Amino acid sequence: MATTTTSTSSLPYEKERRIAELAVQRAAILSKAVYNSKVKGTLEKSDNSPVTIADFGAQALVFASLRNNFPDDNIIGEEDSGDLRSNKELASLVFKAITEAVYSNTTGQSSSESSSSNELGVINNEAEMLDLIDKGDCTDSGKGRVWALDPIDGTKGFLRGGQYAIALGLLVDGVVTVGVLGCPNLGEEGGVLLSAVKGQGTVVRPLTSDFSTLPDPSRVTMNPITTTSDATFCEGVETGHSNHNLQAKIAAGLGITKPSVRYDSQAKYAALALGEAEIYLRLPSSMKYEEKIWDHAAGSLVVEEAGGVAFDMYGEKLDFTTGRTFKKNKGVIVMPKAIQEDVVRVVREVAIEVYGGKSSL
Ligand SMILES: Nc1ncnc2c1ncn2[C@@H]1O[C@H](COP(=O)(O)O)[C@@H](OP(=O)(O)O)[C@H]1O
Ligand SMILES: [Mg+2]
Ligand SMILES: [Mg+2]
Ligand SMILES: [Mg+2]
């Protein structure tokens, strides 16, 4: 099978996919280095969620790659530099982590490796890093080309050595067209890199510790189950992020007897694409919470191109045109196409009973 690095064909979005894969892989390399170092630099954000050196560093690195290759594209990113500008010590630690994990590795490397580092964008100093982090402030997701990045999704999972993901999607006029998920703690040792282009399927390859290498990809498809009772369902670890009791009730209603697989982050989408589970349930713990675009862009395409669908809890498609958060959707459910009717019917009934109809949004 030809790798995208050596392929001479010109499939649509081939460059976007390759740069996104390399950028996510480079950010994954940084995240592993931060995890293995003593200093994680964890801060609590204003919404009481954690952010670390890995979140800021991964955002800076991925944005450097996007700006270098697609300078006219807009970007939506989870983080901004506010907490770093008011904490110079932390800003220095983020820059140091990037330099050590990424650029000091390029000294003495072959010219192909350092040219790959140039292709992925170089961050020369702290000021440049802070400015880059702020490039993800786009608020309009519905028009033109907009990248959506979650530099570390599942920061809580990352901190406890559980699942986390680096998730990068490209929206074209509000439709997810390219999706890349790096999951350093999923599957084989070193983790996996999944990618999808709309209409071209989903592939997986190992994450490597070499910035310039993308190993040969293999095609992935969801398990072709045709009855819901054969399913294993997947849900988050954090009880505050979804309603576990209700999810258990829905699973029982679908005839599911196996215990759920609990993973942090968009690794749940990856787990479905890789056949570790078949249904992902994310029913809101609060109707006030608006799900973030970057928490679902890459994962939803990775699953859809592997034979699945991602809907809200009312059985409607996720609408990525509404800015940084979903305004027209509550809850997320993901399943293989073959069982979507049954899953949607059961979830919809429960959703209307417990949360009220869609008109209450
Ligand atoms: N009350 C809430 N309901 C649903 N999701 C929430 C939430 N509070 C935070 N989150 C989101 O849940 C994501 C993690 O998902 P999961 O619980 O599936 O691991 C977080 O991503 P980050 O870790 O990138 O901040 C955050 O965006
Ligand atoms: Mg976060
Ligand atoms: Mg997230
Ligand atoms: Mg995040």
TrEMBL record:
| Role description | Converts adenosine 3'-phosphate 5'-phosphosulfate (PAPS) to adenosine 5'-phosphosulfate (APS) and 3'(2')-phosphoadenosine 5'-phosphate (PAP) to AMP.
**Obligatory cofactor(s):** Mg(2+)
Q: Per its record, what are the GO molecular function terms? A: 3'(2'),5'-bisphosphate nucleotidase activity; inositol-1,3,4-trisphosphate 1-phosphatase activity; inositol-1,4-bisphosphate 1-phosphatase activity; metal ion binding
Q: What name does the UniProt record give this protein? A: 3'(2'),5'-bisphosphate nucleotidase
Family annotation (PROSITE patterns): IMP_1, IMP_2
The organism encoding this protein is Arthrobotrys oligospora (strain ATCC 24927 / CBS 115.81 / DSM 1491) (Nematode-trapping fungus)
Q: What is its EC number?
A: 3.1.3.7
Q: Could you tell me the keywords of this UniProt record?
A: Hydrolase, Magnesium, Metal-binding
Which reaction does this chain catalyze? Answer: adenosine 3',5'-bisphosphate + H2O = AMP + phosphate; 3'-phosphoadenylyl sulfate + H2O = adenosine 5'-phosphosulfate + phosphate; adenosine 2',5'-bisphosphate + H2O = AMP + phosphate
Which BP terms from GO are recorded? hyperosmotic salinity response; inositol phosphate metabolic process; methionine biosynthetic process; phosphatidylinositol phosphate biosynthetic process; sulfate assimilation; tRNA decay
The source's superkingdom equals Eukaryota
Which residues hold Mg(2+)?
A: E78, D150, I152, D153, D295
Q: Which Pfam families match?
A: Inositol_P
Could you say which protein family the record assigns here?
Belongs to the inositol monophosphatase superfamily.
